[in-house]
Amino acid sequence: MIPAQRQKQIISMINQDGNVQVSSLAKAFGVSELTIRRDLKVLSDSGLLERKFGGAILERSLSQEPEYSKKASEFMAEKKAIARMASLLVEDGDTVCVNSGSTTACVIQALIASLKKITIITNNIDAITMAMKTPMACTLIFTGGIYRERSRSVSGPMSALVLDNIWASKSFIGVDGFSLKHGLTTPIYEEAITTRTMIERTSGMVYVVATANKLGVVSNYKTVDAQSVDAIITDRSGAALLEGKEGLPEVIMAD
Predict the structure, then answer these.
(1) Which of 11, 83, 91, 148 would you label with 56, given CA atoms 20 to 30 Å apart?
(2) ∠ CA(15), CA(19), CA(21), 5° rounding?
(3) 203 to each of 94, 95, 158, 166, how far by Cα in Å?
(4) Phi and psi of 245, rounded to 5°?
(5) How large is the average pLDDT for residues 104-110?
(6) Residue 186 has what pLDDT?
(7) How far apart are CA 170 and CA 178, in angstroms?
(8) Mean of pLDDT values over 228-248
(9) Whether 183 and 156 share a structural domain
(10) Across residues 187-198, what is the average pLDDT?
């Protein structure tokens, strides 16, 4: 089998399983692990996958923002587990930035329910409903900005003006895509501006909160490099995808 044919089959296998291992590919094709690593490098250089130690994961593109109502109902058990883990990492007195998204909405809900004496700074409109329905010990500050119904958020330069006047001790950042090679990405430029500013205005730990389906995804606008965050809180499937991946921030599995 010529390399191009083998590489095409590798892509087919990774499309089916989401990730592949060098050792298993070498056995399947009857070639050396060195040959498989060369194949993976070619595919990685072409932007078709992202290499990790001992294998590779699929790299997918996201050009259009999904409907919030659809993504809000997906992977709810995983999102709630991630949110519970996030709430354990926050202490009384913290000032916490949380950006837009359905996973971060779960994080805000968990932070409010914890009854910790913290300040939450957010552009996530869902926090307004939560504040109206739930007893709170925390203080909520909204960034302001241009309202976007599709993401239930406000964003853009006006949000950045508010954020420029704060220092957060921690931040929890939802993503549309996370890639070690391409960083944190989103299909909306204004969202990238707001999230980037939150990260820049955080003096302590920056956590990405993401379910497995966001890993290996690349969208239109880069927010920051992957190395600009300190840790990734993800579900069991996400942790398995990231296992052994070189150059990653700390991976925290929520279960």
Answers:
(1) 83
(2) 125
(3) 11, 10, 21, 10
(4) -75, 125
(5) 97
(6) 93
(7) 19
(8) 86
(9) yes
(10) 93
